[in-house]
Amino acid sequence: MSQDQPRKPMAERIWDFFASVKLSFFLLLLLAVMSIAGTLIPQKEGAAAYVRAYGEAGWRLISAIGLNDLYHAPWFVLIMALLAANLVICSINRLSLTTRILGKDPVAEAGSMRKPKESFTLSGEPASNLDKARQVLERLVGASAQAQDQGRTVLFAQRGGWSRFGVYVVHTSVLVIMAGALVGNFWGYGGYVNIPVGSTVDHIILDNGQARPLGFSLHLDKFNVAFYPNGMPSEYRSEVTFLEGGKPVQKSTLIVNDPAEYKGIDFYQSSYGNDLKTVEVDLIRPDGAKQRLTLEARKINELPGGAKAAIQGWRERVQMGAMYDGPVARILYQEAKGEPQAYTAFKPGVKMPQSGPLKFEIVKVQTEAYSGLQVKYDPGVWFIWVGCTLMVIGFFIAFYFSHRKVWLRLSPAGQGRTKLEIAGATNKNRQGLARLITRLSHELGGGPKKAE
Amino acid sequence: MEALSNQILVAVTFTFLAASVLYLCHWAFKSKAFGWAASGVTWAALAALTLAIILRWVASHQMGIGHAPFSNLFESLVFFAWTIAAIYLIIELSTWMRTIGSFAVPLAFLSMLYALTLDPAIKPLLPALKSNWLIAHVITCFLGYAGFAVSAALGAMYLATGQSKDPASPRALVLDNLIYQTVVVGFILLTAGIVTGSIWANSAWGTYWSWDPKETWSLITWLVYASLLHSRFMRGWQGKRMAVFSLVGFGCVLFTYFGVNLLLSGLHSYATGK
Q: Fewer C-beta neighbours within 10 Å, C or N terminus of chain A?
């Protein structure tokens, strides 16, 4: 017979799939396991590092699955999206159940009393005890409803029904946090900028390597490192001025843990160092003729006679065992009529292999201090803080408040006495309910019973 | 004053050892006298530990590099021991089940013992750690860790004392509920710890989440405990399963706390200023 039952429609089956707690379980633990993988495999390293550690084939596998940037891999994002869908659908399913529970008619509930937990007799007819019972119940629990059941009177009251919404507050908070991350991903950006002391910049370098204009400019007035007596650095401090159209509009001090904000963009003290400013080199031709050149960093230097030169790279100190120890510069040089040729310049007086007909010797290096600033624009960050706050509030509601129902039944016990029974139900914290029932019983004149 | 604080810490370590032995004797011999002695010794250790932490704080100010004593592994281990002892004693006061002490107090002892192997010198704060969020972050995280530690101790006790043979007995039910309560305390505080950590990271590094191994492992721990709570709420898991789950969860806590630093270092450095 069961074979004749029509299969559920597709949409309903998909719905049921997403509504299952098993799926939540599976996704939570899958997310945990995948995150573990991400902490074991180094993230966002260069290809060479992976080839060294896992071999050529290993690297191909890693890059194919995206394990080198696991937390941003499409399938990892998909697991999170599935978890979000699961959360939404579970919550919608349960929400209708919750509203049904909270919407129950109290009089009808009064008529469906649970098994009594306490029972004792009082002097006086049930009718004479009813008012006191109702007063105590309403004081300790809440508004009461009344039902008659075969000559017996049942009083019903409940408290904390709203706490059933705590779980939805928590689930919503997770979605708000995920939304904040998405907003930050789509509309935010991050990057850095290195500003030499006394210089002005009007663009930053984004995390993907592209330049992005700021729309205003930023001048580094001063950079200072302070030290503890034992030599440990105690503070990095950049003093900056924000300029609009060349006019100063805001002065700010940046230290670690205390960023500056301008037009919604945050600037963080992140690093510092020395950058190359100029290199003085001797250009030595095959015939021994020497020419002194001053090359500026980060530009193409036009030289007398129509030649051009640029500094491609620079290291303050390179050690090559006994062969060499000193500064090294990579210079791209082009004669007035010729092809560009790359040379490596060393300090004078050392025998190093030459890569072309010319030889360059480093005479003097000038560096300048720069301050490295992390730059961030993230319109989603407020979602995160709202989500976090909601989550903590939701936890307190969900864990520390419960929906308690209490029934009192008064029935004639003969000889003009009343039999009073107390029953209760709760969605969590049974101990709390037990204490409440003990207290009710105590106040209603039940014998002083010790709680276990 | 720093030296005095360190001497007290050594004494406290062995006081925790003595307390652990007394709790075990109490359990083994079912003797009330041992129980009272164990409690007294633990209270004394907690008081001395509090004093040592305060002295260390004062000493750092006298050295001109004043900061709350929560800035490195040594100080965090000392504080971890303090929180375990404090949470355990609160449970003891409300349940009078001293057998729990046989499982919880040794954890405080081990934490102190590990601390003693490290350099106790008071060092100035790195620029990255100079933040008011340091105190909020460390206190919430370690209270959370301690909540989980005590829940694992309860889980171990649940299994070791054979409660699963009669999971409906009052004692088993009390233990089961305590495991749940301590996990909830730990879970809320871990959440608060992750939140304060990300607020701090946002002001120090400009990003509230960067999938750094420590962050990721705290999230893994959070996911495991979230599963535990869902299994209890939605599937009614209790007793033995809760006990085992609390031990697995504490394994994640330990890895977040120690494993990341010991095994996964080199992938990421917390130091700024490159």
A: N
Q: Do A384 and B224 touch (CB under 8 A)?
A: no
Of the candidates B204, B231, B235, the beta carbon closest to that of A257 is on B204
Alpha-carbon gap, residue A346 to A159, rounded angstroms: 83
Nearest to A399 among B188, B195, B264 (CB): B188
Q: What is the pLDDT of residue A382?
A: 92
Kindly give, in sequence order, each residue whose CB lies less than 8 Å from that of residue A334, ignoring residues fewer than 6 positions away: A307, A308, A309, A340, A341
CB within 8 Å of chain B, chain A residues 218-237: 228, 230, 232-236
Split chain A (452 residues) into runs of 10 and give each run's mean pLDDT: 65 83 88 88 80 85 86 89 91 89 87 87 86 90 86 90 91 93 88 88 86 90 85 85 90 88 89 84 87 87 87 84 84 87 86 80 86 90 94 93 92 87 87 88 70 38
DSSP A2: G
Q: Report the DSSP pairing between strands A152-159 and A144-149.
A: antiparallel
Look-up of token digits 């233990």? B175
Classified as helix, coil or strand, A425 is strand
Neighbours of A10 (CB within 10 A): 8
Amino acid at A54: Y
Query: How many CB atoms are located within 10 Å of the residue A372 CB?
Result: 21
Rg (CA), chain A: 38
What ipTM score was computed for the predicted complex, to two decimals?
Answer: 0.86
d(CA A168, nearest CA chain B) in Å: 13
Among chain B residues, the shortest Cα distance to A21 is held by B234
Q: Which positions of chain B have pLDDT values less than 70?
A: 265-274
pLDDT at A242: 93
CB B139 within 8 A of CB B76: no
Q: How far apart are CA A109 and CA A128, in angstroms?
A: 23
On the CB side of B203, CA atoms within 13 Å amount to 17
Is this structure's pTM higher than 0.90?
no
Answer whether B127 sits within 8 Å of A256, measured CB to CB.
yes
Can you tell me the distance from the alpha carbon of B33 to that of A44, in angstroms, rounded to the nearest whole number? 60
Torsion angle, CA of B77/B83/B85/B89, rounded to 10 degrees? 180
- Cα B76 to Cα B142: distance, rounded to the nearest angstrom: 8
- SS3 string, chain B, reads CHHHHHHHHHHHHHHHHHHHHHHHHHHHHCCHHHHHHHHHHHHHHHHHHHHHHHHHHHHHHHCCCCCCCCCCHHHHHHHHHHHHHHHHHHHHHHHCCHHHHHHHHHHHHHHHHHHHCCCCCCCCCCHHHCCCHHHHHHHHHHHHHHHHHHHHHHHHHHHHCCHHHCCCCHHHHHHHHHHHHHHHHHHHHHHHHHHHHHHHHHHHCCCCCCCCHHHHHHHHHHHHHHHHHHHHHHHCCCCHHHHHHHHHHHHHHHHHHHHHHHHCCCCCCCCCCC
Amino acid A146 reads: Q
* Residue A416: count of CB within 10 angstroms of its CB: 11
Q: Does A35 touch chain B (CB under 8 A)?
A: yes
Pick the CATH number of A187-273+372-388 from 2.60.98, 1.10.3470, 2.50.20, 3.30.450: 2.60.98
| Domain layout of chain B by residue ranges | 1-112, 126-274
pLDDT at A386: 96
Arch. (CATH architecture) of A104-160+402-443? 2-Layer Sandwich (3.30)
Specify the DSSP class assigned to residue A7.
Answer: P
